[in-house]
């Protein structure tokens, strides 16, 4: 199984949108993406990569088929204490590709990207406690749970997040 991270191009937007389901919306995005919005997001990621700042994201390819998405963001301060500066990770895997270790592989690859590009020394995963699949991904990747803090989900409802951290 070959898992690779590659920059996302406009022609990948349709496959990315088709890979969203109710789990993606519930736990990550708060709504289904449009083609135009997804392309605009890819453009922002490309600009950030070029400038070497902000959120940088990739498509996750499994044997040359787009199977998910992962990004890293050094600017997310939610739930942090003074002195903490972890790089936040977000990810989703398309339904057809779930349960095969794609997320664990993608998190490992984005952690290497963070280290190789000197973006940060610690990674963070913020996850709702009921999102058992993502909690398991964090645990499998060596993250430790630090604290629970109040937040809003992507739809604006009050929830709690668990902050997981991992020194790279
Ligand atoms: C969370 C998500 C990315 C996991 O992707 P995945 O590629 O299926 O995960 P993996 O195959 O790498 O599995 C990692 C671990 O999670 C476990 N897992 C996967 N799906 C699970 C589920 N529905 N319930 C419980 N555990 C689950 C796997 O068994 C594995 O643990 P194990 O090795 O101990 O068996 C995927 O379910 C998803 O896209 N969810 C919607 C978006 C989301 O929640 N993003 C994260 C927001 S914090």
Automatic annotation (TrEMBL):
The record ties this protein, via PROSITE patterns, to:
GNAT
InterPro entries, per the entry: Acyl_CoA_acyltransferase, GNAT_dom, Ribosomal_N-acetyltransferase
Can you tell which superkingdom this protein's organism belongs to?
Bacteria
Q: Which residues form the N-acetyltransferase domain?
A: 3-166
Q: Which Pfam families match?
A: Acetyltransf_3
Q: Which cellular components does GO assign to this protein?
A: cytoplasm
Q: What's a Gene Ontology MF term here?
A: protein N-terminal-serine acetyltransferase activity
Q: Write the protein's name.
A: N-acetyltransferase domain-containing protein
């Amino acid at each position: 199984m070959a898992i690779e991270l590659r920059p996302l191009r406009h022609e990948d937007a349709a496959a990315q949108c088709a890979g969203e389901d109710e789990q993606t919306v519930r736990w990550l995005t708060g709504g289904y993406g449009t083609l135009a919005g997804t392309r605009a997001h890819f453009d922002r990621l490309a600009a950030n990569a070029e400038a070497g700042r902000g959120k940088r994201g990739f498509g996750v390819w499994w044997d040359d088929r787009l199977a998910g998405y992962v990004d890293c963001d050094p600017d997310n301060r939610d739930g942090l204490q003074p002195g903490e500066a972890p790089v936040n990770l977000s990810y989703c895997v398309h339904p057809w590709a779930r349960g095969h270790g794609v997320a664990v592989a993608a998190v490992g690859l984005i952690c290497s990207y963070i280290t190789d590009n000197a973006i940060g020394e610690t990674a963070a995963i913020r996850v709702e406690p009921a999102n058992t699949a993502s909690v398991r991904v964090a645990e499998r990747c060596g993250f430790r749970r630090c604290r629970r803090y109040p937040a809003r989900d992507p739809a604006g409802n009050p929830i709690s997040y668990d902050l997981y951290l991992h020194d790279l």
